[in-house]
Specification:
Structural class: mainly beta
Radius of gyration: 20 Å
Number of helices: 3
Strand content: over 45%
Largest sheet: 16 strands, antiparallel
Number of strands: 16
Shape: globular
Helix content: 10-25%
Length: about 300
């Protein structure tokens, strides 16, 4: 494995970095000092959960029938092979679709829209571009019964649309491939699962575009603490490009969040720290990233 610590931090202090670091410290202090409410272990974990705790587990479940609108800011103060600080703004609706006569299965449709501040050279300069749009459509299975077994899964297609103009933001390729998600929630408070996708290019918008085939594996683990609080390791995506000599990256993350209910509105603010533990054949790659997220929850809405 290559030495990941090739450069030291800059001695200068960025005010934005200081502000975000302070916010992370405040969230950490809040979660470690809050009193965790006890919960009796039963055969059905949902029977002992409050609505906030139930939603706290479902927000990280890729197979949950829960309508969400996610806003996320990914701030990267340090990257490999550049001195630039980068940022990504992400909008991600999660839309469950009810079963109907012509298609008797529930679906989860999740598009992802991103605007990225990108580095293209070792200098500190950046550009801002729209990234490629991503979308998957999971067909959720009711066998075996998730309420009885705690196990849920879904399978379907994943798509990538070439909306990114710059090569650093998009691949100039139309892509489609398989998607598969699975989760186990049979242990009280605990949710363990994953989301797998592998889009493959089949058409191109630029003559210089190269064929794409990338595995994206996202491990998802969360544990509810009571009163809507939870800790998680579920935001990092491991990527493996299958073409010879192309990049592989394995980041790891740890975060904390809470589901709130105020005047009938349910929302979930959270913060996560991420570190790239392994990389191979990668060029400019995030070393450390802080994710700030806010998710609006609509548990009673379904198309």
């Amino acid at each position: 494995m290559r030495n990941l610590f090739t450069r030291s931090f800059s001695d200068q202090c960025n005010p934005l970095t200081t502000w975000k670091a302070s916010l992370c410290a405040l969230v950490f202090i809040a979660v470690t000092t809050c009193r965790v409410r006890g919960c009796t272990i039963t055969c059905d974990p949902a029977a002992a959960e409050s609505e906030e705790d139930r939603l706290a587990r479902e927000v990280e479940d890729p197979t949950a029938i829960l309508t969400q609108l996610q806003f996320q800011d990914l701030y990267t103060p340090r990257n490999f092979q550049t001195s630039a600080q980068t940022n990504t703004i992400q909008l991600r609706p999660i839309i469950p679709v009810e079963a109907f006569s012509l298609f008797p299965f529930q679906q989860i449709i999740r598009p992802t829209l991103q605007v990225k501040s990108l580095a293209r050279s070792p200098s500190s300069s950046t550009i801002t571009e729209f990234a490629d749009m991503e979308l998957f459509d999971l067909i959720v299975s009711n066998w075996p019964n998730p309420k009885e077994t705690g196990f849920g899964w879904g399978v379907g297609p994943t798509f990538v649309f070439p909306t990114g103009r710059d090569p650093a933001a998009g691949k100039h390729a139309w892509e489609v491939g398989p998607a598969f998600g699975a989760v186990y929630r049979g242990i009280p408070h605990l949710m363990v699962g994953f989301l797998f996708q592998n889009p493959i290019s089949f058409a191109y918008t630029n003559s210089s575009a190269t064929p794409q085939s990338q595995m994206q594996f996202q491990p998802r683990i969360s544990y509810t603490l009571g009163r809507g609080w939870y800790v998680k390791s579920s935001d990092s995506t491991w990527t493996v490009n299958w073409r010879h000599g192309t990049s592989t990256t394995i980041p790891i993350s740890l975060g904390v969040g809470r589901v709130w209910k105020v005047s009938g509105l349910q929302f979930n603010p959270w913060v996560t720290g991420e570190w790239t533990a392994y990389r191979q054949y990668s060029k400019i790659t995030p070393m450390h990233t802080v994710r700030f997220g806010l998710t609006l929850l609509f548990p009673d809405f379904e198309l």
